[in-house]
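Title: Prediction job returns without error message
Component: structure pipeline
Severity: low
Priority: P3
Assignee: unassigned

Description:
Job completed but the reporter wants confirmation the result is attached to the right record. Sequence as submitted:
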Amino acid sequence: MIRGAASLLVDDPDSLPPASRSQMLALIERGATTMADLIDDLLTAVHLEIGDLDYLLEPVDLRGVLEEAVQAARHIDPERPIAVHGVDDLVIEADREHAARAIRAVLVNAVQHTPPGSPVEVVVGTATDAVRLEVLDRGPGIPPARRELAFERFTRLDERAGGAGLGLFLARGLVRGMGGDVSLEDREDGGAAVCFTLRRRG
């Protein structure tokens, strides 16, 4: 897809109207970003398996991390409604890059494995020393018997869906490395809930 769009722009750019050129450039940009993210995810997965991933734990503004993750998911599906609730001015203790990658991976999963146009929500709540973050979708959900399988590397429970099968593996591995956890639950009235527990700072 990237090669085809680039070839059109290089071989005969003057034949394309300005609007079409803009669409092609946007397509190339989204494709290149997706490919770069996939390569980074694969490298991160290797280091998680080896057990030599470094973590720089520091106070991290959760709102900024969520904004970055939502933007990445919208690269996959620009029209998808994604709403964030309850984030306020929360600060977590985390490695910022790893936290953003973990949440992005789950949001991208939600976009890839649910019907086009169906909403995705992020709901944030707090306890004394923790932040609970839920990514909620209206997809088919995951049966309880297969939930732990979904966290294994390169697992794709629906072979028709896109992705490399790394999203939940990365999310749980990265979050556990920062002292938290990730689990799967049913969403009320249908769908899946991916639940993060993150360490709260302050």
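Comment from assignee: result matches the submitted record. The first helix runs from residue 2 to 11.
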